[in-house]
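hey so i finally got around to running both of the ones u sent me last week. sorry it took forever, my laptop kept dying halfway thru and i had to restart like 3 times lol. anyway pasting them below in the order u listed, first the sequence line then the structure token line for each. didnt double check formatting much so if smth looks off just lmk and ill redo it

first one:
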Amino acid sequence: MTNSRFLKACRREPVDATPVWFMRQAGRYMAEYRAIRQKHSLLEICRIPDLATEVTMQPVRRIEVDAAILFSDLLLPLEPMGLPFDFIKGEGPQIERPIESPADIDALRRFEPREQLAHVLQAIRQIQGELAGRVPLIGFAGAPFTLASYAIEGGHSNNFARTKSLMYGHPDAWHKLCALFADIVGDYLVAQIEAGVDVVQVFDSWVGTLGAADYREFVLPHTRRIFEIVGGRVPTIHFGTGTATILELLREAGGDVIGVDWRIPIDEGWARIGADRGVQGNLDPTLLLGPTNRMLTQAEDILQRVGGRAGHIFNLGHGILPSTPLEHVQLLAQFVHRASAAR
């Protein structure tokens, strides 16, 4: 498994072809996933290891991906902390009682992920049994800013006004909250590694809403803490979107591989991140909805900009959209493998 092209790329070693995987590669664009969702809620799939295993394996069977990613949700640690939530159709996650004050932060609980999230760890063990060494398995968790934003906003937000209001108005409480998230997430990722994942990715999906000064003051120390807890156990990926102005800071926070979205050319992003880190990305997910020739032209441009440098993992800048044709995803993975192997 250590010789897989995906793990080699994470270590910035030469590969026979550029490794490919897709965020949300298991999801609503696949008919077999939709069939399961007709019978089970998203949380049920996350909580039942047999279902999480099946959904994780679906794209591995249908697409030339070089890694599987655990089917789970980054919000799972919230409930055992005292922040129950559910997914509302058409609206996404909704926290029952969002954080509104420092007192709410004081009331949050620490927990043992090996007990309260044991079903996730059981799913990892089952998935590795199903994979049987075919491709590596990625585990993941949410970064402190993104978890805090969900917990404070109560769900998705366009301007993160409540989050920033608490951050600016109660900085001590903010740092207490993020320090708690960092310790819990770090321990949770170590538990995933113990259960068998080969790589871990830290998702900071909404951190692009911050400028560089705010990121350094309010976020960087806590995200760095996660990577310090994980240590060198497995390769690590640090993902965010809208981060073109803070790529250097993401690198400073940690991660062997740094995500680059479509808002900056990948060679420019990599130059700012530094040659001592790998890079993941950076195709716009909406390109998979349009003409395939445009999708492949942009994929070729990314490969040309990378120029065969070791350490590139081909991915989208964010997740596959639900209306994406499966055939486009299959074609893209095949193209990247073929085009990069020929260089």
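and the second one:
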Amino acid sequence: MAQTLMSDRRMMERQMADRGYRIGIEREGLRTDADGCIALTPHPSEFGERLENFRIGTDFGEAMLEFRTKPQPDTESCYQELLEVTKEALKVLHERGEYLWPYSMPCRIPDESAFCYNSYPEHPEEEDFERLLTSIYGIRRMSISGIHFNFSVSDEMHGYLRVRYPGVPEDKDEAYMRCCRNLLKYGQLIQYFLDASPTDLDGHLAEANSFRNSPDGYRCEKAKTLDFSSKQAYAESVSRLKRYERFGPVRAKSAQKKNMDAGILISGVNRIEVRFCDINPFDICGVSRQDLDFMTALLFLCMTKEEASETGLDTPAHLLEGCMRMNRELSLGLDEGLDAMRRDLESGQKRSDKVRELIQRHGLDGFLMLAAEYDRAAASPESA
């Protein structure tokens, strides 16, 4: 009886704490050796079958790990799960004498003849697809890593947003489309806070502060033709692109694994995936708790913000102010991260500036130093 009451109480606490949204993270990262060369070894068997292990798999090539969290009801839970997955993986890498590369731009990459592609004995079409990607984009470009931020709202939250912000579309799928349109509109302002790849390791400078998000980085120009004006328009524009042409900064996804984009016409929009976030080298998870707070408030802002030629969010300061107002209005509990963002903004030093300084002072060794630091943190008994 006592256990039942305790269980009911915990369930009530979880329900009261549930703010009506879910976020999830996919974090990519390359395995390297101690010299910063990409690992030429197969995917660690300790992680099990990559297509069956939801938490730890691979992306492009055997060396690119991908860590995933379940959809979580708040940023703290999301960050904690990602931290657990990251430490679990780092401990395995530590035992193998390998490291996790903490930068979006790739480490030292060999010629194609020595590159270790993913092995899918049961899915040869996936092996063929990787080689197709190589022929189109090249190995170095496909080895760029990033953070994918997944976001969804419950029907109840959507209803609440419609009452509080009358401009929110009645159809939840169309509310997601509005969110995507605003995300694309504010893209350069968002990148002010999250850009962290100002150069590659050969010294080539990005147009702004993200080599990864530049024309030479991880994106396809044809993805600009994706039409977010409506769910129908989006699905139709997706159908005109090949699978490898959909590498855009924002995607609307359905719950259908084999038809995630166009499947929204059948089962609706399951979530929005934001793909323009660089790896944050200064956090063991590649993304910080304050990054998650900022992105969550931003997505609510983009879902509720009226669309007009003059948005009023034309500077990073105005955009952050809008996020902080949204946090207060919806009682999202994101104060800590947004306050940290505000302090960073007031200091005038962008994350990309910190990365640039690290490279100027230490070069490649700067990232090796961070990788070794995270390796020690995960391997220490205190981190268990």
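quick thing i noticed on the 2nd:
The CA atoms of residues 304 and 348 lie 29 Å apart.
anyway thats it, ttyl
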